[in-house]
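stage 2 :: seqdesign
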């Protein structure tokens, strides 16, 4: 981002203070102003992410460091049994989900100021309230519809949605939470029991997708945590990037790609109409389309709202994205080295939403909408959540204004996070999905 653009962006944020004594119309204008800056900032922000300079990560505390050693030893055993290397997808899966060891299976704090990253529900109650409004619209169309949240994190989104649905007189008979992490499930149960004791009887925890589900499915930042394969395009074919352990450290190793991975890369080139150049490195998620297919088998009548950071296939495999979209998060530092701190840092990859859409259509689902997170929030009732803004104490105005900026501005979450809505048998599409739909870009 050049200095002039950054200055304009910062000034726009400061200008929002002008609305402190404005009208309800001014509040809506503030939201629209936030969207205006997307056109200016987006490309520079994407480029900045790609080419950021290596950073010095903070040192883990003693307990975390010892845990990472245990996870590293577990991975070394996997590598030894496999004959010297494992696929990156297996490395990522074990680092995140190995029983009692993986990042999501062990007991460290992941979310919020004390963790490694902050999700939209952690930023503001507004995200959950808007999503609750859209869920309520959908539930009116579905007889005996329930809600299923996949990967509920800290439980914050469930709390915000249930509270808002209660206010809207739209509580479902059942709010289901599918959580694969025993540690997170325990934390969710304790937090929901403390904050919503009168609603806890409506909440049910699941270990698998139900065989048939009617209602609203919510998955916030789930797709990015599914294991991906790393590859390198070579002049004579596709190489799979694997992980070995040498001289006391995990290192990359190339081997001939499996037929499945080679086919996936060939499909990317066919879909984009461009041959990837020699040395082009990126990822393919073989797990995400399979995940969508499983979801489709479960969903009878209903809508699935999937939120994550990602782009279309053409953007994902653009020539200037020659190092892929793999991202790591440790103590609120984002970086590009997934081989350090195994088990105590989050490993993610941006989502190829074109592959999600293709898997959905192949599985018999309809694409109801695809838009940025900011467009979803504005179209879904953000202005209504801002009603009474000018009557709040100044301190609360500043706090709420900052939260809205984080959720909607492109330099924060607004542009890079997307919502894709998939459905089956729904008569009326929720109102948010009519605003600035981008489905044609997939």
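stage 2 :: out
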């Amino acid at each position: 981002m050049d200095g002039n653009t950054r200055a304009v962006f910062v000034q726009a944020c400061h200008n929002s203070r002008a609305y402190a004594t404005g009208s309800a119309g001014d509040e809506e204008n503030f939201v629209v102003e936030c969207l205006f800056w997307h056109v200016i900032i987006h490309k520079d922000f994407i480029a900045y992410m790609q080419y950021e300079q290596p950073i010095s990560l903070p040192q883990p505390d003693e307990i975390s460091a010892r845990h990472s050693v245990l996870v590293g030893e577990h991975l070394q055993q996997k590598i030894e049994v496999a004959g010297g290397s494992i696929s990156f997808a297996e490395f990522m899966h074990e680092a995140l989900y190995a029983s009692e060891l993986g990042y999501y299976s062990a007991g460290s704090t992941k979310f919020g100021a004390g963790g490694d990253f902050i999700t939209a529900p952690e930023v503001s109650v507004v995200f959950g309230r808007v999503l609750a409004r859209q869920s309520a619209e959908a539930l009116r169309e579905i007889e005996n519809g329930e809600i299923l949240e996949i990967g509920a994190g800290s439980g914050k989104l469930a709390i915000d949605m249930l509270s808002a649905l209660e206010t809207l007189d739209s509580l479902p008979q059942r709010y289901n939470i599918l959580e694969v992490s025993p540690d997170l499930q325990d934390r969710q149960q304790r937090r929901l029991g403390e904050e919503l004791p009168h609603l806890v009887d409506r909440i049910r925890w699941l270990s698998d997708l139900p065989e048939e589900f009617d209602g609203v499915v919510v998955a916030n930042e789930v797709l990015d945590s599914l294991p991906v394969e790393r590859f390198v395009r070579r002049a004579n074919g596709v190489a799979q990037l694997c992980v070995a352990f040498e001289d006391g450290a995990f290192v990359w190793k190339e081997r001939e790609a499996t037929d499945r991975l080679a086919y996936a890369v060939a499909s990317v080139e066919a879909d984009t109409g461009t041959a990837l150049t020699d040395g082009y490195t990126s990822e393919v998620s073989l797990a995400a389309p399979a995940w969508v297919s499983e979801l489709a088998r479960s969903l009878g009548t209903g809508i699935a709202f999937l939120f994550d950071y990602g782009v279309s296939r053409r953007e994902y495999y653009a020539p200037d994205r020659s190092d892929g979209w793999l991202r790591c998060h440790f103590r609120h530092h984002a970086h590009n080295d997934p081989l350090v701190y195994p088990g105590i840092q989050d490993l993610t990859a941006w989502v190829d939403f074109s592959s999600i859409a293709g898997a959905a259509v192949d599985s018999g689902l309809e694409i109801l909408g695809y838009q940025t997170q900011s467009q979803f929030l504005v179209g879904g009732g953000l202005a209504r959540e801002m009603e009474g803004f000018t009557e709040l104490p100044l301190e609360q105005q500043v706090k709420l204004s900052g939260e809205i900026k984080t959720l909607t501005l492109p330099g924060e979450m607004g542009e890079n996070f997307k919502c894709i809505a998939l459905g089956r048998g729904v008569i009326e599409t929720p109102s948010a999905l009519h605003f600035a739909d981008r489905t044609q870009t997939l």
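stage 3 :: structure notes
- Residues 3-45+113-225+290-313+353-441 form a domain with the Rossmann fold fold (CATH 3.40.50.12710).
- Residues 62-81 form the longest helix (20 residues).
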